[in-house]
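User: I want to check something. If I give you two sequences, will you return the structure for each one separately, not as a complex?

Assistant: Yes, each is folded on its own. Here is the first sequence with its structure:
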Amino acid sequence: MGFYMQAPMLTKYGFRIRTRVGLVVDNLLIPGRDASEAERKLRQIYRGCEILSRTCQQPSAKAVPASYEDVITLITR
């Protein structure tokens, strides 16, 4: 049985956009530490898009396996 640590929590942002050619795309989920990071990632994928709306979903924590060194570091603090 292994130890598990919390992964950094990222919020998922939902976008509705209009692409450069005029197509509307709904429900694009982009993870980010904040809204500006998610928007930056979105604009890297869809260059020149127009953001029609943005929503914020609550962050979800995922358990990830911890290394032996991570556990020792936590214990010795």
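And separately, the second sequence with its own structure:
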Amino acid sequence: MSELKFEECLARLEQIVAALESGNLPLEESLKVFEEGVALARHCGRYLEDAERRIEMLAKDDAGALTTRPFAAPADEEL
């Protein structure tokens, strides 16, 4: 699973949610895809935590020294 990209994990999670919401899967198959979904969600969470750490590590202070600080988008930019 570690070689999966974030976008691939997210797409698979969306497929799993749709399959579970349809209610058409047998119980055993529902449990199997649910377990896969939990693993994918954890993987995505770790990926996002790593990305946040990378952003914090790359932040520089006014003197040009690298410091850690939370990322905040400029007020004039909309996401």
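Because they were folded independently, the notes below concern the second chain alone. Residues 16 and 33 are 6 Å apart (CA to CA). Residues 6-58 form one domain.
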